[in-house]
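Example (one chain per record):
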Amino acid sequence: MDGTVLVADDDRTIRTVLTQALTRAGCKVHATSSLTTLMRWVGEGKGDVVISDVMMPDGNGLEMLPKIADDRPGLPVIVISAQNTIMTAIKAAEAEAYDYLPKPFDLPELMKRTAKALTERRSGPGALRAATQAGGTTGGAETAGESHEDLPLVGRTEVMQTLYRLIARVMNTDIPLLITGESGTGKSLIARSMHDLSDRRTLPFVRAEAADLASLEGPAHLLAETRGGTLLLDEVADLSEEAQARVVRMMDAPGDRQPRFIATSQQNLAAAMEAGSLRQDLYYRISGTELPVPALRARVDDISLLCAHFLTRAENEGAPHRRLSEAAREPLRQFPWPGNVRQLENVVRRLALTARSEEISLDEVNAALGAQSGGEPMAATGSTLSSEKLSESVARHLQRYFDLHGDMLPPPGLYARLMREVETPLIEISLAMTGGNQAKCADLLGINRNTLRKKITDLDIEVTRRRKLM
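Predicted structure:
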């Protein structure tokens, strides 16, 4: 890398780490804990790229971006922040930041993005800025955010930060959106948030029910009610053939007051289209941009953050002040959470009301999770393992998984999902037990070595080089 980087962060350790890493990469670095000093450097013409924290002792880094843009048009600013909510990503996009990374950030990733910014030298718009401009102006989300910071759209994991950046980019476009994910992941919540934080927030948000599309006049009534706002088609694949045809005609209807169409689905819509349960023309209209919402098990590092969020919300609603003990966190990370974030919220809020003291204990968490699992312990005992066949153990856990869904069936795609969840630990343990020797592991599993290598790559499995102690 070649260039000068200005670093502004009130954390001395972060300044030191970034200064050392950037200097080793060939950059000149000026680092400060003051936004005032940063702005002076910018005004003096120093720096080819800025890396700035948001919350600083003498101000807000995001609020400085418009002045930086006025003083030094085209100077890339990479925002780093410990405020890991959807609002931070949206505000970074509004302020036309070149890029945004959450704390704790991945240093190689930050270095890669800094190198890209130095190479481009603002010859083309940055990723966030380009997306914001493509979607039109985005004024007002800061005030709207005051009433939405309590939404459980929080997460510092990469899958959630990727989702936040994508939301920020498409929030004010007119293109239809398809939000996919399992039950309880927050699809409808994201749809509502995107409306309330967008340019259409002063217009109606209307959820279309199947009954609204049962008659020929239904689409016209929906368009009149929405008045150019946002129309949500919840679980679009569940609509009848006639209702789907009416949605297609509604989306094709000319007019200046067309709503923004957002659809949600638990199903694989491409598979539903192939199976004939979803109209092809509807699929291609609603899938302009897809927002895949990850299951909670794909973002377990966010569980502690979510628990703290739900405990604070419960306290604001009158529950006693509670906190999780360190020991109580691990079972929450290990639980499969078939009901995703919604199920986690229910468990945590119940614990906030029923815990015997300020600190929620391991026993209390285990009892709550046992109730979620039909009263069974979270882990089998040694005696159970010695007397139970593997097929019986698998059947017991599968039955518990179905029971957790109550009267509803699990989301579609169960076979592939379960096969992947079984295959990954099987290969990981086999590799560990063979000391990372892929030839021995392939022989143990009875598969071709090339097949094993492909599965290791596809499943993103880390090869363990030492024998696991049992």
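Caption: The radius of gyration is 25 Å.
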